[in-house]
Amino acid sequence: MTSYSKNIFMVISCVFVSFITGCAHLLPPEPTVSEYLKTTGGGFLMENRGLIVCRYGLILEPTRELPTDSVLLVEFENPSDATRPLKRMYSDIADQDSIIIKSPVLLSLEAYRNYQVTATLYADQSRTQCIGQHTQAIQSDVDLFSVNRYKSISEAVRFDLDPTKWQLDSVSKTETQQVLEYVPFDQTVENWTELVTTLYNTAQGDIADYLNIVRNQVMKSYRSPEFSILDQTVNDGLYEWSHQGNANSGPEYYLTRVLKTKKGFYTVTYATKTTPVAPEIRAGWLKILKDASVE
């Protein structure tokens, strides 16, 4: 791991590779200072989700008073596609002594190279007036492909997800299940209002049994639940459900397509905490899910 001497940013609770040979001769980028911000810590977090994934980590401190309504749009160089940087939005930053930055999940990372992070400060949420910019290079000494012993995730379900709005934020993989979660760039899987989830499970069974299990779980777990099967065949199901909350969440709406193959069940789900869901939003996601297919 590379970290600036002024601050140790990362607490790694899982697996971290720090014994790559040849790292000693690499000079890490210096922490930078801009008109409004300075870097006091940086590096890469590594998470074991059945597959080792990474995230950028950065600590920024204001060098002067930030405007009351200012927001920070942070863009991270995307190792998988340099033309599409990953993004995070940070608001309510004016009174913070330090701003903790963490990127969406990274599935690829090369060793012995620097990656760029650009933080643009705007006067308010409209993001029409840029008042400052801060750039920082962060060095990687890990090759994720080799760390994962050449394992990777598979996009189990093909569907049309707008890459200008949505980005992968969470991966979980076991021998029998894979879960990928996507959120808009101004949200996270811990704090979302819209969420798209794909799931692959090696379980075998009937679509009818699957839908009954889901229905029973929904009906007993939430307040004022509603569950509707919109379409069902031997190997395919489309259903929606909503609820008015429970001890852990407020009202939510879910729309799911489930596909059965010889390998198991594949699902793709759109969820929103804005209820009731707008008819045009529902119609758009119905089309996306109906067009979804298994690779």
Gap from first CA to last CA: 36 Å
* DSSP strand count: 16
Can you summarize the main beta sheet? 7 strands, antiparallel
Uncertain residue segments: 1-24
Shape by Cα distribution: globular
What structural class results from the helix and strand content? Answer: mainly beta
SSE string, helix = H, strand = E?
A: EEEEEEEHEEEEHEEEEHE
Number of helices: 3
Q: What's the alpha carbon Rg, rounded to whole Å?
A: 21 Å
Proportion of helical residues: 10-25%
Strand content: 35-45%
Condensed summary:
The protein has helices at residues 144-147, 207-221, 279-290, and strands at 37-48, 52-62, 71-76, 86-90, 99-102, 113-122, 130-140, 157-158, 166-173, 177-184, 194-201, 226-232, 236-243, 252-261, 264-272, 293-294. By secondary structure, the chain is mainly β.
Describe the 3D structure.
Helices cover about 10% and strands about 40% of the residues. The two termini are about 35 Å apart. The longest helix has 15 residues. With about 300 residues, it is mainly beta. It has a seven-stranded antiparallel β-sheet, with helices on both faces. The chain has a four-stranded antiparallel β-sheet with strand order 4-3-6-7, with no helix packed on it. A three-stranded antiparallel β-sheet has the order 1-2-5, with no helix packed on it. It is built from three helices and 16 strands.
